[in-house]
Amino acid sequence: MNKNELATRAHGGATASPDGAILVVLSGAAKGQSARIPGDMGTALKVGKATDNDLVLPDDTVSRNHLTITRTAEGMKLVDLGSTNGVRIGGAKIKEAIVEPGSLIRAGEVELAVRVELKGVEVPASEHELFGLALGQSMAMRRIFGLLERISPTAATVLLTGETGTGKDVLARSIHLASPRNKQPFEVVDCGAVTHSLIESELFGHERGAFTGAIASRAGAFERAATGTLFLDEVGELPLELQPKLLRVLEAREFRRVGGNKTMAADVRIVAATTRDLPREVERGKFREDLYFRLAVVPIHVPPLRSRPEDIPLLARKILDANADSQGMIIPDDAMLSLRAHDWPGNVRELRNILERAAYIARAAGDTEVRLVGLPARARTSSPEMFVFESSLSYRETRARYDGLFEKKYVTWLLGRHNGNISAAAREAQMDRKHLTDLARKHGVAGRGED
To answer: Which of 39, 298, 293, 300 is CA-nearest to residue 155?
Structure first.
């Protein structure tokens, strides 16, 4: 395996962990490789230099049989197997310890991290349609809720990816509410909205006179978050030159204000979000690989609204009920069909805007039914269950129109499920990869070739 691959090596033998827990190598000769922590109680993941280990670390400071991680009733138990150079967690040398997603481990001089990788893992879906402030009855969202119900009580860093408007900020707030830190501050930094020259100050604060215009000392987001949660929105926009400074804070759990000498503790839980494909940004040299690994302890892709239309009625009702002026308003069946038929390029944010505008118009007209003013005509007049025929078109022309519509909707939905990955989408649909590439190009649907 290429050591720079951001991939997971499956654990051979025992059942893969039901929560997707893996041990990933952050430094050394095996950097980028990983192995699943088994799900069977009492079954161990073996780590060391010897080739019969489940995760082989061919480094001089690693013993032949260095450590094991075993699933127990108390959690994932790490045991040092009498290694020469020891095992450290948070700088402290240990013989035994319970680890969880986000734990940083040093075996000799090799850094390891426990994180979550959902690829190939069937996460049990939540029984609930609500997680904190987030709502969804689709299987995709309930699987996300199921994972977050398990992860939120821990200190694990969560990375939310997906298109703009899918509700990543709502999920971030919901993670905070479900965590033991929910009485502490929830601080937000939009890394794409802050001027590059000021983002270091926004994160870490500054002392008076630290730079031109710094007329007074100011606390940064890490300081304001105290022992709460810091949400780094659009973290993919973080300037490359600032990424090492954020990495150092995540590693050392301490920072200094710009222009300051005093070291402050950074006891915060990090939740990050991005619309960018960070592994691809790593390959392009636009994002640090080590920072990606620190952020993606629990990576979660939030699917676009077009791939989960069954969530639309629930979301629409919540949006109307949240506004005092639109509570009790009715969405007629034909309007709901149109909502389900729309592609929603702006996702939940677009749905909210259209419904709020329609509710204002209905209220002004003294109506109790929401009409979809502002929704494209195609979505208002057609849905997957409806056809609109025109006498001026022949049978062949009519069929060609709806064949094309079906192709576009299916390809958009399919690639949306796989974040644009054509290879993975083609395998799921049992299609020829080249044919899917041609369909995506024909209908202007963005896709990418790599796995």
So the answer is: 298
pLDDT exceeds cutoff 50 at 326: yes
Name the strand (E) or helix (H) holding 444.
none
Are 294 and 333 in contact by the 8 Å Cβ rule? The answer is no
Q: Check if the beta carbon of residue 154 is closer than 8 Å to that of residue 101.
A: yes
Tokens of 32: 């980028």
Beta bridge partners of residue 85, listed in sequence order:
none
Cβ atoms 327, 321 nearer than 8 A? yes
Instruction: Please state at what angle helix 422-429 crosses helix 433-442, rounded to 10 degrees.
Output: 110
Beta strand pairing call for 229-233 and 186-190: parallel
User: What tens digit of pLDDT does each residue of 64-123 get?
Assistant: 999 999 999 888 999 999 999 999 987 789 999 999 888 889 999 999 989 887 665 566
Question: Containing H/E element for 436?
Answer: helix 433-442
Question: What is the tens place of the pLDDT at every residue in 352-388?
Answer: 988 888 888 888 878 888 876 556 554 444 444 455 5
Q: Answer for the pair 273, 168: CB distance below 8 angstroms, yes or no.
A: yes
Residue 266, pLDDT above cutoff 90: no
Distance of CA 187 to the CA centre of its chain: 18
Name the residue with tokens 């699987």. Answer: 143
- Does the pTM surpass 0.90? The reply is no
Whole-number Å distance between alpha carbons of 168 and 160 = 6
- Tokens (6 digits) for 308: 């989960």
CA distance 172 to 154: 14
Q: What's the CA gap between 314 and 427, in Å, rounded?
A: 31
SS3 of residue 170 by DSSP: helix
DSSP state of 114: E
In the structure encoding, which two tokens stand for residue 354, read together? 């259209």
Give 217's strand partners. Answer: none
H-run or E-run covering 260: none
SS3 label, residue 30: coil
CA distance 236 to 389: 46
